Amino acid sequence: MKRGFFIFLLCSLLTLSIFFAQAQEEDVEALPPEPSAEEVPVFEEETEIPVIEEEAVPPEPSEEEITFEAEEEAVEPSEVPTEEAQVEKPQEEVKEVVTEKRVLPEKDIPEGMELVLKAYEVKMGDCLHEIANRYYDDPSLWEKIWAYNKYIKNPHWIFPGDDLIIPTYQKVQVSEETPGRELVVKLEEIKPGFEYERDIFIAPPDFAFDGYIAGVKEEKFMTAYGDIVFIDLGKNQQVKPMTRFIIYRQGDEVVHPVSGEVLGIIIEKIGVLEVTADIQEDNSTAVIRDSRKPIEIGDPIKLQGSKEE
Questions:
Q1: Who's near 29: CB < 8 A, 6+ residues apart?
Q2: Per-residue pLDDT tens for 48-69?
Q3: Does domain 101-303 have CATH number 2.60.120.260?
Q4: Where on the phi/psi map is residue 305: left (φ > 0), alpha (ψ -120 to 50), or beta?
Q5: pTM score, two decimals?
């Protein structure tokens, strides 16, 4: 009895094992077939595209090829620098002075008097009332000064550095050539020498300067005291070391109201220079010893005279 039971149990186990084996084979067959080695994409094949792009880029030229190509490249005519562009302009070239005209008003002159023009530079704290009182002993005559300086838009606003024409009168020296009631206009008499050192004056049209500022040693925002400049005077003009020249600034032209004739030009003293030992044939080096305003190329200079005893 027992023997039969064991045989039945053994047969059952064998049947179950065969059943499980067949089930595993069916699961394996249900899975998709694995791709072959030829079908599996290789990672190196994915990088074939960038490799192809790199091969499409032309190879960088060697140093020898670069040198050779640079020698063969021709510069266009428009890019070739001319000799004029390389050579700096001579410092002796003086800029043209541009002046404006200040036409005088046509005013009646007192009987037996002639008009004499003077120049005055406004100082800190000045006003037309005080200037009129200084010249006429009457501050209410300020409008007379304003009439000759109409470039000032508002007579209540004048500033230091403004140059004014001051009309004054003197007795007419009676002569046969003196016109009757015509507007006789004269300039304040200036004497050569130390008188030219005045801050401002009206010079006649034939007022001659000795030379000009021809250049500056260093390009600065402002050329002033202690800076080195060049003048267009040298050994041929008998310039010697330590010679001093006054530096001027030319202002507006003063025009007669009737005839339109240029009576003079407003001249302002702006500094003093002293010649150094560096003196050439037609130019010299100088140092600025005094400056009231920035010095510019083209400013005229005149030999400083000695005070007459």
A1: none
A2: 444 444 444 555 555 555 444 4
A3: no
A4: beta
A5: 0.63
